[in-house]
# Entry
Amino acid sequence: MPNVSHLECSLCATRFEPNQIHNLCSCGGTLYVRYDLPAIKATWTRNSLRSARPDLWRYLPILPPQQPESIVSLGEGMTPLIRARRLGGTIGAQQLWVKDEGLNPTASFKARGMTTAITMARELGIRKIAIPSAGNAASAAAAYAAAAGMEAHIFMPADVPQANYIESKTLGAIVTLVDGLISDCARIVAERKDREGWFDMSTLKEPYRVEGKKTMGYEVAEQFDWELPDAIFYPTGGGVGMIGMWKAFDEMEQLGWISSKRPKMIAVQAAGCQPIVQAFEQSASRAEFWQNASTLAAGLRVPKPLGDALILNIIRASKGTAIAISDEEILDGGRELASLEGIFAAPEGAACVTAARKLIANQFLEPTDRIVLYNTGSGLKYLDAYSPRK
# Structure
């Protein structure tokens, strides 16, 4: 890998050789891809992006594949950053923006992680992947595996949104519905992967999905002309997007592209599944497993994120916070965003609307702050959740 120097455990800093198949460190930590940033800085500038391709692969020098022909792309990334003036007026935010990830392939931000993960799987000779998913990661895994000619084995809770199930099946994946939560799906993958010859592509259990997700950080910086916003609201289930963006900010500072200023990173969870919020409020370094997790925002129903320590560190380092929103408030926020701005957000993204209103009202944020809400998927995948109440 020309620009990749090594892989590094995010918890214990153990180094691993690149261009080899890896999952977790022996300590249980997620592996980060590390780049030769001084060498990249000498040859790659912000100005070069003016002629770059209009998707996330415009940032190829800080992405992991060694061979460009390995890339499996469906046109992901460079999603719009939309000024939300009318919504801002109702919640008291003078500079409110929505980064609309629902316009990615398979209609969610999960496409970002899967383009890089499947690309590296192809480059490393992997032929079969397996993944537990609450919905949108399944769709993306199925799509990119199909594009790469790989076999995809997907395990989803039985009550997953129907759109994700139909999409994954149509894309040719082998789908198993599980009577339980995503944690139960993950257990099945872990139990069977060695026997079946599957590569485990679970959230943060391989190094490359975070690399695709980090491009959300590069894009928001580029779209704001290299000055980061004051606050970022991020729907936090597994939290890989937040982890990836924080990594991106560090890389960009080392490249000399941005200053040391960082946004307040705000984790938004559902009231029925809020392990990060609880851990943050208790000043804990890790989250406890959230019992009886329940929310209509399927992507937020993650009882214990693998990256909990990383997420909590980011929130605290950025002077951010964590907030939980009820399902009723989530749907109200989604309808408000849709009717005022024409953006039909997934419930996960919709949760950020109410979260922003609350944090402006309690003066955690100033009305003049530049605020970005991340909508991580399209509301079209959650028609059952949004259907008129009987």
Q: What stands out?
A: The chain has a mean pLDDT of 96. Residues 240-255 form the longest helix (16 residues). DSSP finds 14 helices and 13 strands in the chain.
